[in-house]
Amino acid sequence: MKQKKVYAAPSFYMFWAIFCLLDEEGVMPLFLCAAVIHELGHAAAIYLCGGKIDGICLCITGAVLKQGRCLGYWEECLIALAGPLAGLAGTWVLTALGYPMLAGANLLLSLFNSLPLLPLDGGCAIKSLVCMLPPPVADAGLKLLHAFSVIAALALTAFGAALLFYTGQNATALVAGGFLLFANIAFLRNRVKYGMIETNHTGCLSGNRRKQR
Q: Which of 21, 96, 98, 168 is 20 to 30 A from residue 189's alpha carbon, by CA?
């Protein structure tokens, strides 16, 4: 049976159902538009690196772009950073066109994804660079990056819960923290791998050929 080019995992519907329930400010459409611009940046970088998108999986950790070409660490770093860079470019264009709310959503999404945390783009870019170091140094660096990501996710979730409890509104921090925490717990249980790009090529030997944000 042929697999669909674009498909959504059950966790994707669960995440957006919760997001809709907590979205009292009605910002979801803005961030959906910003997410499309973000993913277009990733897609453009994949094609510039000579790759081709074979499919897209929507899940709780974001959109996982599937492609069939082995990528080098520099290419993975470039593709990871292309999403936030596209968002920043979109912020500039939308501001010039007179859409400040949509521009703000692009800016916030780009800044959030640029944080040096897994499975965000900033963290994936750092992971690709760390993997180019000598093996003992790379192993230590990856462990440190993983630990820092888990601690930061716990801290953001706790802060978001406290903010929602005391103010009775603005669940953005809680949703962001929950997203990061779920992604990191899934990684620790070996259910997913980090990264926005999943390579379908069986000949790839790099330890970074993995899936996700």
A: 21
Q: What is the dihedral of CA 135, 136, 142, 144, to 10 degrees?
A: -170
**DSSP classification of residue 62:** E
Per the prediction, the chain carries an average pLDDT of: 77
Token reading at 210: 């993995």
Note the pLDDT of residue 61: 58
Report the run of H or E that residue 99 belongs to, with start and end. Answer: none
Distance CA 145, CA 159 (A): 21
Q: What is the DSSP letter of 148?
A: H
Q: How many CB atoms neighbour CB 14 within 10 A?
A: 13
CB neighbour list of residue 98: distance below 8 Å, 6 or more residues apart: none
Helix pair angle (172-188, 10-22), 10° resolution: 160
Do strands 53-59 and 6-8 pair parallel, antiparallel, or not at all (unpaired)? Answer: parallel
d(CA 121, CA 79): 9
Q: What is the pTM of this model?
A: 0.77
Does residue 94 have a pLDDT over 90?
yes
Q: What CA–CA distance (Å, rounded) separates 182 from 76?
A: 23
Question: Which DSSP letter does residue 2 get?
Answer: P
Mean pLDDT of 144-165: 87
Q: What CA–CA distance (Å, rounded) separates 28 from 195?
A: 24
pLDDT of residue 10: 64
Higher pLDDT, 76 or 17: 76
> From edge to edge, which strands make up the β-sheet containing 6-8?
6-8, 53-59, 62-67, 197-199
